[in-house]
Amino acid sequence: MRLIMVGTGPFGVPTFRGLFETNHTVVALVTAPIRRRRGKPMSPVSSIRDVAHEHGVPILDPEDVNTSDSQLNLCEYKADLSIVCDYGQILSADVLAATRWGGVNLHGSLLPKYRGAAPINWAIYHGDLETGVTVIHMTPQVDAGPCIAQANIEIDPDETAVELENRLSEMGAWLMRRAIDSIQEGRLEALPQDASAACNARRLKKSDGVIDWSRSAVAIKNQVRAFEPWPKTFTYWHRPPGRPVRLILGPIAVVDSLDADVTPGAVVRCDGGKLVVATGRQAVRIESVQPAGKRMLSAEEFLRGYHVQPGERFGPE
Question: Has this prediction a pTM greater than 0.70?
Fold first, then answer.
């Protein structure tokens, strides 16, 4: 088959590389244009562009893939199937029709759960024990097409969204190759999604990183893991009499609080290189922290340079 790869972000790179290990022909890459900042390119190439350059694949990078000009360009490649992963634009019905069999999309969740832009992050945030990848036959409705293939994986209780995304992207590349083979061999079984079980995995916002210390220690740990590398998880140290100091949290561990009546967000230990803060249930030991404008510090380094006292409060600005 003649394939068009449609993708931009790192999640799609293993899938793109995997297409060159099949007997199919990749005829083009459709990706986002290189953005400019203050008149200069943010980067000369992205990793998915690197793969295209390595294999001599033409690159199309329209501002809007759904214009009539873009659709005509795609039709010129006379492709059989579009392989879509981590692209960043919603494809119209006309764009999907530019290839003989439309498009298939690799999504980083067990659809219909976590439809949307950030499925991996929200799966960790909500404390899910497993997640997976799904290949769907694409429709104009976002992430709602029938499922072609699906595979699940356990979520390690300490892994971050970055680490989980790496594992899922490799699994997804394998699953996509299986799905393409099924399409070619005519043994494809597409199962409609149960719309009643769908939930939204909306795009992340900076404000999602703010810690609510009244939540449980486990929930806060999940938040720290979920929001790497962005928006990260942060709070403010309220130090009398100075201004609050913004702190980005690194890895944390769940520990038992020595005082069940302590106010959530209160510092319960700040000696011996240990920084422990109370939550709504149990407490967290902060392993590393980054004060505003500084590098990430171990808890021991932070406590040497910043005179935190027991009872001082971590919380909103």
Answer: yes
